Amino acid sequence: MAIIEVEKKQAEEQQKEPVRVRGLPFFPHFLLREVVVMCLIAGSLLLLASLYPASLLKPADPFTTPTPIYPEWYFLYVFGFLKFWTYDIGPIPAKIIGVTVPMILWYGLLILVPFIDRNPSSDIRKRKIAVAIGIIVLLGLLFFTYYGIVHGE
Amino acid sequence: MTLYDKIYKWLDERFKLRELLPPILKHPAPEYAVSNPLYCLGGTAFLCFLILVITGIFLAMYYKPTPEEAYKSVQNIMTAVPMGSLIRSLHHWAANTMIAAVMLHMIRVYFMGAYKKPRELNWVVGIFLLLTVTTFGFSGYLLPWDQLSFWATKIGTGIAGSIPIIGGYISLILMGGNDIGADTITRFFALHVLILPMAIAILLGMHFLMVRIQGISGRL
Ligand code: HEM
Fold it and tell me: What are residue A92's DSSP bridge partners?
């Protein structure tokens, strides 16, 4: 409890000086809080690790293909899109449009985000287009992840 | 004079602690960032990374990167090595949590517009971090050499190999041959424990330095 009171006093003192940012000094207040949060996360990981140990299936066998095979969950959307896209465009086979093109586009666009979005405002109410695109992209990722799960090989 | 004072004085006379420490220790963490838990996501990813380094070092003491030994050595870690199962499971959970935290961190940066001037390049470094972290996952997945890791890697390298023109070279570089075998496992091991850790250390250094210089962006 003592720590919380010290933090508040600190904040109030700084409020009298409007020029300065209100905040906690990095040491010891901010660091102490960080350490508490870190202990909570480390504790949760320990709990998960002891309740659900990492699995180890049968040894690799290059001659028996198991079914179904899934990639790691964070690659499922790529896998899902590949399964989803079955159309050739002209001479370009579907497999290439299903992976190469979307991956180059996806990472290219991600890197360029700060240079595409020239709107200087960071007020979410004044960034309707960026927010709408963000939500559509997230829904798309969820959809293709789902598609990848349902259509596992 | 307490022992603490003596040590402080000894170091201060040699390293000018009085000048160096206050800007670091008294640097204010802005109130809006302290009170909003969304700002914890980057730190959560970093904590997971530290746990991965420590548990990874212990795993590397028992793991053997050859097709004959890999599976057996992981089985040994899981059943015979003291605390081995806990260490490997922690490594597994910290890895998945790190990737989730990085993704959520990125989503918070996007929706708060925290990548805008002057932070454009930190977003670019962030995308490279995202690539590094997912490649970590991909390379680590093969190492236990069980059915899942073998066949998931088969699909993964197959996809990389289907890229026009350069795909053949990419899969050759990744697999060290025409099929997944002894050369693939040592390559993935080198990637997982040498190349990627160095890459992520450099990228994280740049990332944190930029956050420090530019400060945390303002409220939503
Ligand atoms: C290994 C992965 C990463 C780690 C450990 C990490 C860590 C951090 C930390 C600790 C901060 C301070 C603020 C906060 O925690 O929210 C931060 C800020 C930032 N990160 Fe990351 N990050 C990672 C990946 C990424 C990615 C993938 C992106 C985006 C593509 C990104 C973009 C940014 C930006 C733009 C800031 C400044 C935000 C602001 O000033 O509000 N980071 N990062």
Answer: A89
